[in-house]
Amino acid sequence: MKEKIRIASGQGFWGDLIDAPFNQVTKGDIDYLVMDYLAEVTMSILQKQKNKNPDLGYAKDIPELMKRILPIINAKNIKVITNGGGVNPVACAKAVMKVAKELDIKNLKIGVVIGDDIKEQIDELVKNGTPLKNMETDESISIVLDKILSANVYFGAFPIVEALQKGADIIITGRTTDTGLTLAPMIYEFGWKNTDYDLLSAGTVAGHILECGAQSSGGNFLGDWQSIPDMAEIGFPIAEAYPNGEVIITKHQNTGGKVSFETVAEQLLYEIGDPKSYITPDCVADFTTIKLDDLGNDRVKMYDVKGLPETEFYKVSCSYSDGYSAIASLTYSWPQALTKARVADEILRKRLANLLLQFDEIRTEFVGYNSTHGPLAKQINEDDINEIMLRVAVRSHDYKSVERFGKEIAPLILTGPPAVTGFAGGRPKPSEVVAYWPALINKKLVQPIVEIMEL
Amino acid sequence: MKIKLLDIAHGRSGDKGDAANVGVIAYDETGYSIIKKHLTVENVKKHFEGICLGKVERYELPNLRALNFLLHNTLGGGGTVSLKHDAQGKTLAAALLRMEIEVEEI
Q: Is A443 within a domain?
């Protein structure tokens, strides 16, 4: 058994710093590179791409990235784990294999985890008495059945562990929990069992710290953010894991950013609910047991994590089409910038009402004044405001109403308050609203499948 | 005396469906005893009047000198449905730090 392993976060979401994974494999020693590409909205976008072309539906950044890092990870024996397979992990793996052949890489094994995509099975599940009730509203999924865009089960770490046991160098999955990507190599290397709940929870917490990339190493830090060194060259986090469940969060030397008690604590608090019950397919971690020691020099030790057995359910995330929206903005300058923006909004709303358009919601915000903190925004002296951006957004199930809204913005420039600019890029176009349907499904009803592709 | 929450704590916020999660972390144990006492469900709900339209849930993490709040019905329908400029509640931790607290302790 290895004495320790170093697991590096290479991506906090699809669209994160392109060079981050390259830096992780070149600027220091690591054993694993883990990359989270999937947000809820990503799955529906990928599903649309796959509908148009059956060879697509995965994060296209991955083959591009592999061109740069395959020779390096091959030479250094670094394994890569990513959920960027999206709704088509097999096509993603084939694209990576193609890159490997072009680079003349020998002896490459890619593990593919599938089985999470249950879109085609929903009708049957509902028929057989699994209503996939909405976790928030308790409604049966049958009310949106004809509008479903994607439906994926969140698998945990164990299918990835199986791929590692079968010798995979690169593992590409569909919907896998962000935390499972980091936990899996610990289970595999240290021989943890599926009943070692405290250890599984420790690895899960480490995964939570890594899953948003540099958000735990100085990015988006609300403490003394100006004290964070060299954010331009920010180092992404690394979990140095030990067999007893202790983990040191750190980053490569000679990179920017900072790993401290404060930067790690902020990430631990990110997007959690009840901290005693952080539920994953692998365990239920108790965040109130986590101990953190700031060791200095960008090293924070995490230990003593406790957890409970996993539940009998997987989470399912379904997306469905729920109407259209459009967003428009115009910028008004001093003097009376805020008043001008308010009057323009009144004129716009009056015109929309006169046209008898149908909207589920019209929302007006004044960027530069109250668009982030709403009623908490301090009253300001109008003379002190240099400019205000009027932002109006609409949502409707009637496509034509949203389309017409887009045609009512530019006219405000010549038919409304003065000193206005910022109308570039043409009329705002309606975009499809994709809504989410979170549900639970008994684990017995879904089977993860692990396939190995070899070169 | 009145103190600013900004001076004794930091935090991070994000989305969980139509609820926002707002985590607040005190810089030291004295700060934690202040936030634990003064950041009640009622005070936080009142602070976010007009923003949080549902109930507020509060959790304690003494190990991190932190509290976690779930603000329900806050994000205009959540992530992709919301028309809000800050549809994911990313700036709400900063909004909480605007709070001023009347303390005797310091």
A: no
